[in-house]
Amino acid sequence: MIKRIFADTKRCNGCRICELRCSFEHDRVFGTKLARIRIMMNEEKGEYKPNTCRLCYKCIKACPENAISKNEKTGAIKIGHELCTGCGKCVEACPFNVMFLHPIKEKAITCDLCEGDPQCVKYCPEKVLFYTTSQEFKKLTAK
Q: Which of 7, 56, 60, 88 is most buried per CB count within 10 Å?
């Protein structure tokens, strides 16, 4: 069964450490605009919500260059940056707003699960993030 990142949103305080760790892991700089995970704010509720790839794979179908595929080991989205033209079709196709164009490289980026060791999960100080299956996540948060 494929694992992905889930969030217990009741715990999130909006610190953005997950975003900073993600950008450092991938680009060696601390910058929230470079993160593959994004903290969204629900203004009405005053709540923060981590947002990351849900592995729906709609971006794969949308890519006219066949630059996006599924990592067979992790199930994560894999982007072949040598093929990506930065057209943005994958960004438009993403129903969860988690596919972006890198602001400097102008190539598609989204969560790649850090090859099965997601750094955002590892470094979240509030233990908001979980790298697990949907069944396990339901068990973990059914308290």
A: 7
**Backbone torsions φ then ψ of 126, nearest 5 degrees:** -95, 5
Q: Minimal CA–CA distance to 31: which of 99, 103, 136?
A: 103
Query: pLDDT tens digits for 59-69?
Result: 999 999 999 99
Query: How is residue 64 annotated by DSSP?
Result: T
Separation CA 11–CA 73 (nearest Å): 30
Name residue, tokens 């605009």.
Answer: 33
pTM: 0.91
8 A C-beta contact, residue 104 and residue 73: no
Query: CA 6, CA 37: separation in Å to the nearest integer?
Result: 11
Cβ–Cβ under 8 Å, residues 24 and 52: no
Cα 53 from chain centre = 4
